[in-house]
Structure formats: C-alpha cells, structure tokens
Amino acid sequence: MALLLLASLCSRAVAGGLPTLVVVDDMLCRASHSQFFELLEQQGHSLVFAEAGSPDAKLTELGEWRYGGLVVAAQAAPHLDSRGIASFVDAGHSIFVAGGRAPNVATRRVAAELGVEFDAVGRTVIDHAAFDRADSGLDGDHSLIVADTFAPSPTMVGADVRPVLYRGAGMRRANRNALVVGALAGAATTYSWSTLEEVDSVPFAIGEDLLLVASMQARNGARAVVTGSWEMFSNDFFGADVCKYYAKLPAPSGNQDFANSLTRWVFGSGGTLRVMSVSHELQGGSQQDAYTVRDTVSFGLTIEELDGEQWVPFVRDDVQMEFSMLDPAYRLYMPHVGQGRYNISFRVPDVIGVYKFVFDYRRGGYTHLKETMQVDVTPQRHNGYDRFLPVAYPYYVSALSMIAGFFVFSLAFLHSV
User: Fold this and answer.
1) What's this model's pTM, rounded to 2 decimal places?
2) Regions in the chain scoring below 50 on pLDDT
C-alpha cells in the first residue's frame, strides 16, 4: 500500500510538469470563455489548445503521455477517442468534460466511461420554480435556472458558494455508480424534458437525482468532472446577475467561484492528501512484528494536504483507525497531537491471532487514504505470568493444610500402635 501511494504521488508530480490539453471545436471559445481559461492558468496550468482530430489533440506520443490534464470542450467533434480518454484516466490523470446543451455521441461515450449518463437528444434541464428572471418572458421556457444544490464538500465546490446560473443538458449516475457525486444537482422542482413537448411520461431524472455537474474520483486517485453546460463557464455567465423569479433583488452569480473551486479539485490542487510516517510500537519501546496479549501499543501517522505547491498539516477531528483480525477488535478516533500527526494507544486484546492496523479515510472531496500493517499477537511466554496469583491463595492454603493434616495424622497413628 505504501508503494501504491508513492507511485500515485510520483504520477501526480510527473503530471504536474506536463501541459494541460484543451480540446475545442474552434478557437472562438478562447474569447467567449477566456476568464475560465485564465482561472486554469492562475492555478499553474500550461494550456495547449487543439481542435478535435488535430495532431496536437493526441494524448500519447511514442507510448508516453503528452499531457498531464485534459479539458474536453468540443461540442460537435464526432471523433473523440473515448477509449484513449478512459486509458488516460486509468493512468491516474484527471479530466474536465463539458457536454453542452446538445452533447454528441462522442461526448456521451466519454461520459459513460466515467459513470455518467446524459439524457436523450433534444432534452434540457427545466425548472418552473427556480428559473432566472431573465427567462420569465412570454417566450421563456424556464431552461435558464438558478441552481444552489451543491455537494456538501467545500474542497470541491467552495465554501459559502453563491447560486449559479445553469442552462444545459441533464445527467444521472449510470447504474447507480457509487463513485459519482453530484457536485451540482437539481432542486426538488427540477427535471429534464424537451421545451417543445408536454410531459407525458416519467422524466429521465428529477430533483437531486438529476445531475447538472457530476464529479468522480476513481480508485486510482484520478478525478473527473462532467458538466451538462459549457455555457455556465462562459464570460457572460461569470459576470451575470442571478435573480430568481420571486426574488426581490439580483445578486452576482457564483459561477466563477464555483468554477475555480471545481477545477482546483479536479486537477488535484484541492482536497489532495497523503500519508507520511506510519508507525506502530510498544508503548515506551520500539516497533515490533509481533505483540503479546495485553501489551499497550501505540499507532500513529502523519497526514498532509496539498495547498498550492506546498504540503501542509491536515487537521481534522474525524480520523479513525481499526485494529482487526476478521472483525475490528477496536475502532478508535485518533487525536491530533500537532503538525498533522495523529496518535492513539490501546491495549492488545486477549485473543491471539494475526491482526492488522487499518487506516481507511474516505471523505467526500478528499483523496481516499488507506494504509494497512500486519502484526502477530502471541500468548505470553512461560515466564511472563505471575508466580503467585492472589486469587489462588485459598487453593494454596487448602493444599498446605492437606499436607499438614496428613503429617499430623501419620504421627498420631504411629504413636498409637
């Protein structure tokens, strides 16, 4: 596990030195989404723009990855390499996929590889209660909505993020994929349907099951974001005001802050953790491969969080560890003792066997951390027990009294003959 973590960190370090590829239909979006691309550059990304199908859009060259990250903003390109993008994610790299209001077949295939399913062609997200006032005219179809159902993860969506404007396609988890999280989901009144048809059956998805922006963190640490709206990251939406139909006053949209937090998370600048210096030892002694029953053992580790380009101590109050054989014998909270170090002491159970120290930290928006260390628990040696037990004193007295009684009886019997 330690080697796997080291390999993951190395891959992140290598990916950090490679440019980020932005696949587009044409170069016009560099002007319409210039503020979004400026956010990426401010985060340290070196962007390479390439039209879909061009030589620069190839992810590999001579068997080596050319890019460390990928942004797919091609709305009409029919030749996206979905298998190549899936291999890109399998290699530990992160991607950002913008589906737009009418995602094509290639984009749908890429999303399906990531566990996300788009609604049928011609369908869009509608909300007759949470639509923006700009979409309230006679010709308004209530597809310009004000969304504020964010995932409860500040590292992913930001802290105290304002409502955002959204206009685009709806999505849902494919096969209830547990790795997919709705970074931005619909409200209770949000659904996906055609703006030109009446609803005559159950919609594709409703409420919080309808995903507007989906995030996924793979088991190898790679991250992905799929959004049904490329327009929500445009300059117009960044500078727009948000005003629900029943609201009194407009307020600035949170699209830019949301985009900043989301891109920081997906490309590893936010919510990235690592484990350092894991150890277990006999209290007051040193680390051992085997412990004796009822020994007092200490287990500790250090957790660090990536903040920009520096690793800083990670301080939380929900860090746990387990000491388990088949089932956990102990599941304990580990107090923070300073500088990202967590430590706990406990007494080894009075049951011999092969045990594991297990640290498994899964929290939304953070890197999944898992460390296991195996130890043996053995019985005490023959000289490890007390020579005389206080609870056995009655038995000692009984045995001695029996001997003394037999001796007295023998003397009495011999003298009486």
Assistant:
1) 0.83
2) 1-16, 138
